[in-house]
Each structure stands twice: as C-alpha cells, then as structure tokens.
Specification:
The complex is a heterodimer.
Chain A: H1 3-10, H2 17-27, H3 41-52, H4 62-71, H5 82-95, H6 99-138, H7 143-172, H8 183-212, H9 216-235, H10 242-259
Chain B: H1 3-21, H2 31-42, H3 45-59, H4 73-85, H5 94-126, H6 128-132, H7 136-174, H8 180-203, H9 209-226
Helix pairs in contact in B: 1-2, 1-4, 1-7, 2-3, 2-4, 3-4, 3-8, 4-5, 4-7, 5-7, 5-8
The chains are: A mainly alpha, B mainly alpha.
Chain lengths: ~260, ~230
C-alpha cells in the first residue's frame, strides 16, 4: 500500500477551509476562459491552483509547475460537475499520483461528467425550475415571489451539486467513478423529467391566461393555436430552431401591423 | 435617449451576459429574471416580469450544451425587458416589439459569444509556452481576460442593441394598427408554441412523461377555468 493510499484510507489528508473556499469561488468562474481548443482546460488549472499551493515543495517548484501545466490542458465536462474532477484531481496531485495515471484519469472522466451533467441540469433541473416558476407566475405570483422561487430553488440544486462534487471528488480521488453511480445522477434525470412534464402541462395554460388577461373564448382560440403551433414545431424536427422561427414570424407580424 | 439612460441598462446587460457562461451561471441571465431586472431599472418590474415570462417560454428550447452554438439570452432579455417596460400602459405592439428586439439581440449575442471563444483560444495560443511551463500568471490572466472580455461584450451588445432598437420599437408602436389584445395573443401563441415543442424534445423519451404532461395539463386547464 502506497503512502497516498494509506492516507486516503485513513482520511488523514484534508483540504484547509480557506483552500476549499478559494476553490469553490473559482469553480463559479470555471468557464471564464472557455474556448474551442482547450474547452474547460484553463478553468480546471485555475480552480486547482489554490490546492496546488499546498504541495510541500512550494509554488516555485518544478512539481507545482508541472502539475499546473498538466491540469490546464484540454478538459471537457458539465461546468457544475467539473467540481467532481477538480476535487479528485486536487487529491491526486497532493497524493503524488504518477502524472501518466492522472492524465489517463482526466481523459476517462470527460465523457461521463459531460453527459450526466447535461441530462441532469440542462435538460432536467433548469427546465423544471423554469416551468414551475412560470406556473407560479400564471397563478398570479408577484415579481418577488416568482423570482425568489426560481433563483432559490434552482441555485439550491446548482450550489448543492457543486459542493457535493468537490467533496466527493476530494474524498474518492482517482476512484471517484464509483461515486458517479449515485442514484441522483443515475435516476435523477428521469424523475426530474416527469416532474418537468407535469409542470409544463400546468404552466403553459396558466401563463397564457395571465399574459392575455380575462376572456375565455379568446383564450380557447389561443390554446388551440398553441397546440397546432407546437405540433408544427415538433414535426419540423429541429430543421429550424424555435427562436429563429419566432423571430421570422414576429418580424413579419410587425411589418404587417405597422405598414398595412 | 441619452448616454445616462443607456449606461445602467448596458451595465446590467454586461453583468447578466457574464452569467450566461463565464460567471457564476446562477441563471440570473434567464429571461424571467433578466427582463424583470431591466423592468426594475426602468421603474416597472411587473412589466419586466410579464415579458420575461413570455421570453422564458422561448428560452426553454435553448440547452447550453458544451461547445454547441446557442442564443445569448442574458443581454437580450435586458434589451427586450427595458423596451417593454418603457411602455407601462402596454399599448398595442409593445410586447411584440419587445420580443422582437430581444430575439434579434439574442441572435447577435450568440454570434458574439462564438467570437469571444475564438478570441479566448487566440489568447491561449499566445501564452502556450507560459502555460506549458506551468505559469500561475498565465493561467490566472487568461481566466480574468476572458471574463472581462465577456463582461464588455455583454455591455456593448446591450448598449448598441438598446440604442438602435428602442427608437425603432417606439416608432412601430406609434404606428401600430392591429388590436392590442390580438397582438399580444399572437406574441404569446408564438412563444408558447416554441415552449410546447421544446417540452416535447426534452421529455418525450422519458418513460411515462406524456401521461404526466396530460395530467399537468388537466390540472392547469382546471385552474385556469377556476380563475
């Protein structure tokens, strides 16, 4: 058993609170230098830098510089779940894992952290929170209530996921793959998808009702038009994005309304 | 319209444009929030919320997956929210013009994000040797330059879009000939249709989701009937 493994097993190593806070704040800016070549790479190096300062040789050492250079290479992941990678890589670097092993780990982690995060957050949690807020808006919720609900509920999940990821990554180090079998990550997207489907059904008619105002016969016609419009957009199968179609339709409508 | 009128709108657009990708992705850039905050700046938060809700329906379709190219809603919603909230009596055409302004800005905003990412890559290439040598300064400066550029991008986009589109919207509203309720219904029908299509795309592969949707729809229609 290596020293690193023994330390992990005993739980002896821990990140100082100040370092954890510094990493967490930097995680919020992990996509600050996002680009089409190294993607999140520079952001990973930026987030890990406070942890690398704990290397016994110090920040002017070859070990520090090699680790920072290695961690700033290409990396791709969902920005929230990148915290798992940051925690695990911080552990691996401080434990003195061999560079080749760290490189292999980085490569292996990219895919799962991207796909799981996209399904859980972008295609699940965000639409659910958005639709639930629209339902509250449709029920007559005032500005403060709608905004507070959206921001608090969404960010409870957002910050919770980043904190969980950092802690889990640090705890498991290079063995973090087992933690990705967490039921929330495996079954969460399905469950949130069902909740979001319910929220869609509730939110759309209520939001329509609030925006249009009183008058049921008018509202009925709009609901039918929305059903037809949605069907047409689904049948277009992504050949044109909805927002582009909206832009064209509304531009034509404005021209007709002003000129004719 | 003076520079002092545009400045607070531009600063808000810059901050919310930054939230889309760079910092902190807390979704204050979603139309529901961004348009409402623009309404707060103009002095009519309820108007901001109203157009924010309509734009949110369209934004449901946007999934910011990794390297995909997508519209930038933060700055755009500020422009749309400010234009709509500037007409607090909600005359005919105000919502349609606000939405159109937001959609046009979101289109240009998406393009500016692509350009920013290309610029970030070029800055990284220029520092390749320093990055390979493990320079803390190079890593940190790249990150800070990217975020600063994103902030400036959002603020400039908002300032230009608001300066150009607000007078155009005022002109269109002054010459609007279609009934106010019909105009607003047209706008919300377009937005809700996009939301319906987006919901299908998101949830149709989830087991049982269509029945959950139908259940929700029955509840939603019943509540609408009771109101």
């Amino acid at each position: 058993m290596t020293t690193a493994t023994m330390e992990r097993a005993s739980g002896a190593a821990s990140l100082p609170l100040k370092t954890r806070i510094a990493i967490f704040v930097r995680l919020l800016a992990i996509q600050g230098a996002w680009n089409y070549e190294s993607l999140l790479g520079n952001g990973i190096g930026f987030c890990l830098e406070p942890a690398l300062r704990l290397l016994p040789e110090g920040i002017h050492s070859t070990r520090f510089k090699s680790a920072l250079a290695r961690e700033s290479h290409y990396f791709n992941a969902h920005p929230y779940l990148a915290s798992v990678a940051v925690g695990a890589l911080a552990r691996a670097e401080l434990d003195g894992e061999p560079p080749e092993r760290i490189d292999r780990f980085r490569t292996a982690l990219c895919g799962p952290l991207g796909s799981v995060g996209d399904r859980l957050v972008w295609a699940g949690w965000l639409p659910f929170c958005s639709l639930a807020s629209l339902a509250i808006f449709g029920l007559g919720g005032n500005t403060a209530v709608v905004l507070a609900f959206f921001l608090l509920v969404y960010n409870a999940g957002h910050f919770g996921l980043r904190l969980w990821g950092l802690r889990t990554g640090w705890t498991h180090g290079l063995h973090v793959a087992t933690a990705l079998a967490n039921p929330v990550l495996r079954k969460g997207p399905q469950q949130i998808g069902r909740l979001a489907a319910v929220a869609t059904g509730i939110a759309i008619p209520l939001a329509l009702g609030r925006v249009i105002g009183p008058g049921r016969s008018f509202l009925g016609a709009v609901l039918v038009a929305v059903a037809i419009g949605s069907f047409v957009i689904v049948r277009l199968k992504g050949r044109i994005e909805g927002w582009r179609l909206s832009l064209v339709v509304l531009a034509v409508f404005v021209l007709i309304s002003v000129i004719v | 319209m003076t520079a002092l009128d545009v400045l607070p709108i531009a600063i808000l657009g810059g901050l919310l444009g930054l939230d889309v990708v760079s910092f902190p992705q807390a979704m204050i850039s979603r139309p529901l929030v961004a348009a409402t905050l623009a309404g707060v700046l103009i002095g009519h938060p309820a108007s901001g919320l109203l157009i924010g809700a309509v734009l949110e329906l369209i934004a449901l379709e946007t999934l910011p997956f990794g390297a995909s190219r997508y519209p930038e809603w933060g700055s755009a919603s500020v422009v749309g929210g400010a234009i709509f909230a500037s007409h607090p009596s909600h005359p005919a055409g105000a919502m349609t013009c606000g939405m159109l302004a937001a959609l046009a800005t979101t289109w240009v905003g998406g393009w500016t994000m692509v350009k920013l990412r290309q610029t970030n890559a070029s800055w990284a290439r220029g520092r390749r040797d320093a990055l390979e040598a493990g320079s803390r300064g190079a890593v940190t400066s790249l990150q800070l330059m990217g975020m600063t550029a994103d902030l400036v991008r959002g603020a400039a986009l908002t300032a230009v879009a608001y300066t150009l589109l607000a007078p155009l919207a005022d002109f269109s509203i002054a010459h609007w000939k279609v009934d106010a309720r019909l105009s607003r219904s047209m706008a919300i029908t377009v937005a809700a249709s996009v939301a319906g299509g987006a919901a299908w795309k998101l949830f149709h592969s989830t087991h049982g989701a269509r029945w959950f949707f139908v259940g929700g729809l029955v509840v939603g229609l019943f509540m609408l009937f009771l109101r």
